[in-house]
Structures are given as structure tokens and as C-alpha cells.
């Protein structure tokens, strides 16, 4: 085995010279992954941009059928979860094991609330017959020939919020793993990298929602004559 | 061990709780603001305002919560590079869609 003159620990694997070097490598690796995620979501944002540009009026009407108050509150819940997540990372920096666990549990809780509200919003869409592909699909306030374009909006809505929710579900799994690891006493002031990079992931998912909220819910809610 | 911890504190910048609370409050206010502004009769300007607020929120989350402020130059470069590629994706796609009807192409 290659020996860099130190015994191997979580904080310092044999292939690294210093803990700082290992930490930098982990952070950089996570950012590279997040860049691939940006491109992944970027394709969907491109689709959104093209179709909104083609059917601006339909997108306006379809957007107003979403409840922006629920959307805004849910955005607040997700921002709160990002705050508790960064507090968990801070607890890691300070080596406060108990605080890591509590802040991760709070993050999990807010993330759960977000997903619950999202599930309710989707359920409402089924009740209102706003599901693309539904035989009885009908969006109020649009003529018959525009209904297909309205379905397009809801296809994009479900694809984007669905992909986002999938990331949240994966995030919940990561949080649960971290909580168990923290309980087992795996983290200390010189090693909390899993909490740190999971934080980057969680904040990234938050940033995606920061864009989705105005793009889907808030397309010019002031629509005179409608 | 003492030596190692010294290296660690030099390397890691620990923000105060107050900083994070301030960022959270700013983010929540921005969310309220963007929801309210959308109801104003701003026409096409409404989209610009919404995107500007979202950009501001993204900057707050990435610089503070994601610690980009204190990250290495290489990490910063990677982040900016990623956004640049996203811009290429969106801008070049739109140059096609926005300019399609401009010229009458022979034989079309």
C-alpha cells in the first residue's frame, strides 16, 4: 500500500497529503456533479423558454391556475430547510455532534413538509382536470384550440416539479443516512465532509426551486380583461 | 494533533449564526416581494423583475449557504464555467427559435 507517512483516517485517506487537500478534492468533486445537474435541469429550462416564447398568452392563463400563495409558503419552507442545513454544516465545522443531528432532523422535517404540500398541489390538479393527457382535460379561460398548448404547459409543470421532487426524495434519503452516521459518532470538527457535500446538494435543489417558483407560478399574475 | 487543528481552522471559514439568519430573512423577504410584484401591471417588465429577484436569491444561497465566497479559486471557476455552459445552451437555442421567421428562406 502506498504510504504517505500517516495512518489512514476518515479525515485523511492515504492518497492525500493533508486534510485540507482532501476536503478541497471532495468539495470540487461535488461541484462537478452539481454542474452536470445544472445541465440536466438546463435542458428542461430550455424547453420551458422555447414554449413560453411560442405561447406566452397560454402560459399566462395556465400559470394563474396555480395557487401562488401555497407556492410562496412552500418556497419559504424550502428556504428554511436550507437554513437548517447550513446550520448542520456549521455544527460540523464546530464539531458539535448533537447539533448536527438536530439540525439534520429539522432539515428533514421541512423537506417533508415541502413534499407534502407539493403532493397536495398535484392532487388538486387531478381534481381540476389539469393533467396533460386526461381525456377530460380542460383549462378554464382558454378556447378549445388552445387546450393542447395548455396541456403543454402542464406537461412542463409536472416534468420540472416532478424532477425537482425526485431530487428532494433522494435528499431525504441522504439526510436519513447522515442522521444515522451522526448518531454513530462518525463526524468531528476535522471530518464532516459528508454533511458538507450533502449541504451543497440540498442548497442546489433549493436554487432550482428558486427558479421554478417565479417561472411556473408567477407569470404576470396581473392579467387585465381576464 | 494540535498542529492539524491549526491547519483546519486556517482552512475553514466559519460564519456566524447571525450571518445565516440575515441571509434567511433576506431570502424570505425576496420571496414575498416576487410574489407581490407579479400582481402589479408591469407587462413584459414583470418577467425581468421576477428573473432579477431569482438571480439575487440564487447568489445569496450559493455565496453564503454553499460557501462559494470562501471556496478555492478552482471551485469558483467551475461554478462560473457551469453557468457559462448553461448560458450557451439557452442563448444559442433561442437565437434559433427567435430568428426563424425573420428571413424568407428560398425553397422553404
Explain what the structure shows.
The complex is a heterodimer of chains A (226) and B (108). By secondary structure, chain A is an all-alpha fold. In chain A, helix 1 packs across helix 2, helix 2 crosses helix 5 and helix 4 packs antiparallel against helix 5. Chain B is mainly alpha-helical and 108 residues long. Chain B is built from four helices and no strands. In chain B, helix 2 runs antiparallel to helix 3. The N and C termini of chain B lie far apart (74 Å). The N terminus of chain B is likely disordered. Chains A and B meet through helix 1, helix 3 and helix 6 of A and helix 1, helix 2, helix 3 and helix 4 of B.
Q: Give me the Rg of chain B, rounded.
A: 21 Å
What is the general shape of chain A? Answer: elongated
- For the termini of chain B, the CA-CA separation is 74 Å
Let me know the average pLDDT of chain A.
Answer: 93
Poorly predicted segments of chain B: 1-9
Beta strand count of chain A:
0
Task: Compute the number of helices of chain B.
Answer: 4
Query: Please, what is the average pLDDT of chain B?
Result: 87
Unreliably modeled segments of chain A: none
Order of helices and strands of chain B: HHHH
Residues in helix, % of chain B: over 70%
The coarse overall form of chain B would be flat
How many β-strand runs of chain B?
0
Q: What summary fits the major beta sheet of chain B? A: none
What's the story with the biggest beta sheet of chain A?
none
Query: What fraction, in percent, of the residue positions of chain A are helical?
Result: over 70%
Largest interchain contact: A-B, 56 and 55 residues
What is the oligomeric state here?
Answer: heterodimer
Query: Whole-Å distance between the termini of chain A?
Result: 73 Å
User: Strand content of the residues of chain B, in percent?
Assistant: under 5%
Amino acid at each position: 500500500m502506498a504510504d504517505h507517512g500517516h495512518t489512514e483516517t476518515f479525515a485523511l485517506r492515504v492518497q492525500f497529503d493533508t486534510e485540507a487537500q482532501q476536503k478541497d478534492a471532495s468539495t470540487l468533486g461535488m461541484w462537478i456533479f452539481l454542474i452536470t445537474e445544472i445541465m440536466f435541469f438546463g435542458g428542461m429550462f430550455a424547453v420551458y423558454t422555447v414554449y413560453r416564447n411560442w405561447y406566452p398568452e397560454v402560459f399566462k392563463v395556465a400559470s394563474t391556475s396555480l395557487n401562488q400563495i401555497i407556492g410562496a409558503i412552500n418556497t419559504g419552507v424550502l428556504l428554511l430547510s436550507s437554513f437548517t442545513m447550513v446550520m448542520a454544516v456549521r455544527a460540523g465545522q464546530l464539531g458539535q455532534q448533537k447539533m448536527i443531528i438536530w439540525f439534520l432532523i429539522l432539515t428533514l422535517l421541512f423537506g417533508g413538509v415541502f413534499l407534502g404540500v407539493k403532493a397536495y398541489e398535484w392532487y388538486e390538479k387531478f381534481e381540476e382536470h389539469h393533467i396533460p393527457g386526461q381525456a377530460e382535460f380542460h383549462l378554464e379561460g382558454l378556447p378549445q384550440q388552445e387546450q393542447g398548448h395548455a396541456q403543454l404547459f402542464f406537461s412542463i409543470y409536472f416534468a420540472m416539479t416532478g424532477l425537482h421532487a425526485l431530487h428532494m426524495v433522494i435528499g431525504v434519503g441522504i439526510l436519513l443516512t447522515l442522521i444515522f452516521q451522526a448518531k454513530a459518532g462518525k463526524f468531528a470538527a476535522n471530518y464532516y465532509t459528508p454533511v458538507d457535500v450533502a449541504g451543497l446538494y440540498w442548497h442546489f435543489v433549493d436554487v432550482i426551486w428558486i427558479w421554478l417558483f417565479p417561472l411556473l407560478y408567477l407569470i404576470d399574475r396581473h392579467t387585465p380583461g381576464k | 494533533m494540535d498542529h492539524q487543528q491549526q491547519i483546519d481552522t486556517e482552512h475553514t471559514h466559519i460564519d456566524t449564526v447571525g450571518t445565516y439568519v440575515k441571509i434567511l430573512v433576506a431570502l424570505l423577504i425576496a420571496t414575498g416581494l416576487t410574489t407581490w410584484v407579479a400582481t402589479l401591471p408591469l407587462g413584459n417588465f414583470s418577467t425581468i423583475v421576477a428573473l432579477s429577484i431569482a438571480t439575487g436569491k440564487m447568489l445569496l444561497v450559493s455565496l453564503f449557504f454553499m460557501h462559494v465566497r470562501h471556496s478555492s479559486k478552482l471551485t469558483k471557476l467551475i461554478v462560473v464555467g457551469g453557468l457559462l455552459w448553461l448560458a450557451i445552451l439557452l442563448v444559442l437555442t433561442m437565437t434559433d427559435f427567435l430568428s426563424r421567421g425573420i428571413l424568407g428562406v428560398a425553397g422553404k
